[in-house]
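We were asked to recover a plausible sequence for a given structure. The inputs and outputs are reproduced exactly as logged, with field labels preserved.

PROBLEM: sequence recovery
POSITIONS: 304
GIVEN STRUCTURE:
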């Protein structure tokens, strides 16, 4: 009897462990999507940020602290992308393993223009006014590295799931590589001289480097809700001088200025780009791959 009882208890314990998903908390929607796909049923992934919420201006709520406190794994983009998140992890006295998705990537540098990137919480190191550009995911090659780091982080926290995380990561990475190859083929439809992008957010450096684009205008005028008439005139002139074919709006950001610039410069406005996170649930840009594909389609349609 006692033998059966202990067997039952052991079975119950095993079942409890197997059915208790690993609590994983992320601070941006791109990392969340990759984690949810690689983790599958073994994890319960919570993203503190909803699609369309600007990571530049996010105000944490008390519920975020509670979620962080119970998290077994905390995954961040790193490179200063979620400055508020890193502080919150400390405040919540979180004990979960912190995984930095961008680990191992060589960061590009960007101007530490508080006007443009206040919410990313960049710290200027070295006094040259330059900081690491946190938008590394804008290149799919970097996204593969994100997936590998997330896979390894989940395996370290939950070794029993090694096989599952590995095989799911293979599928994710295959899809990323296929998306990368598809994008490179798509971009050949844009004449080289027209591979210039203007948008209201300086988030495409890694993208530009990987796919052979030039990001024109440092966007200060576009990011500002109240740019001077002079700023707008300078940007319009810039678009004309450089024969820029179109400008792009960013999902969730102030679009009035971009619309005004496009009208004055006489260029078309491309479809919205997703630069700081995925699009709304159920939409075509709701995943990292979907967001990237949507951007590629918008850029090809706007510039070819
Ligand atoms: Zn950004």
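RECOVERED SEQUENCE:
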């Amino acid at each position: 009897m006692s033998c059966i009882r202990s067997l039952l208890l052991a079975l119950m314990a095993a079942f409890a462990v197997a059915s208790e998903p690993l609590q994983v908390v992320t601070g941006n929607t791109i990392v969340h999507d990759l984690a949810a796909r690689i983790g599958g049923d073994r994890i319960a992934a919570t993203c503190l940020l909803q699609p369309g919420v600007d990571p530049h201006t996010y105000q944490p709520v008390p519920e975020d602290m509670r979620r962080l406190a119970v998290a077994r794994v905390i995954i961040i983009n790193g490179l200063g992308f979620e400055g508020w998140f890193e502080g919150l992890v400390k405040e919540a006295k979180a004990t979960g393993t912190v995984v930095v998705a961008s680990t191992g990537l060589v960061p590009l540098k960007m101007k530490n223009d508080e006007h443009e990137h206040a919410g990313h919480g960049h710290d200027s190191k070295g006094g040259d006014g330059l900081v690491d550009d946190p938008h590394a995911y804008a290149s799919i090659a970097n996204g593969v590295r994100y997936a590998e780091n997330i896979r390894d982080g989940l395996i370290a926290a939950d070794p029993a799931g090694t096989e599952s995380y590995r095989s799911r990561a293979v599928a994710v990475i295959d899809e990323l590589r296929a998306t990368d190859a598809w994008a490179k083929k798509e971009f050949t439809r844009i004449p080289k001289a027209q591979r210039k992008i203007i948008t209201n957010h300086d988030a495409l450096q890694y993208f530009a480097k990987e796919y052979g684009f030039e990001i024109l205008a440092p966007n200060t005028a576009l990011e500002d809700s109240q740019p001077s008439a002079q700023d707008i005139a300078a940007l319009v002139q810039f678009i004309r001088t450089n024969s820029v074919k179109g400008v792009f709006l960013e999902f969730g950001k102030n679009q009035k200025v971009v619309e005004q610039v496009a009208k004055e410069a006489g260029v078309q406005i491309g479809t919205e780009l997703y630069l700081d996170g995925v699009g709304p649930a159920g939409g075509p840009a709701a995943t990292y791959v979907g967001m990237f594909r949507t951007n590629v389609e918008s850029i090809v349609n706007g510039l070819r």
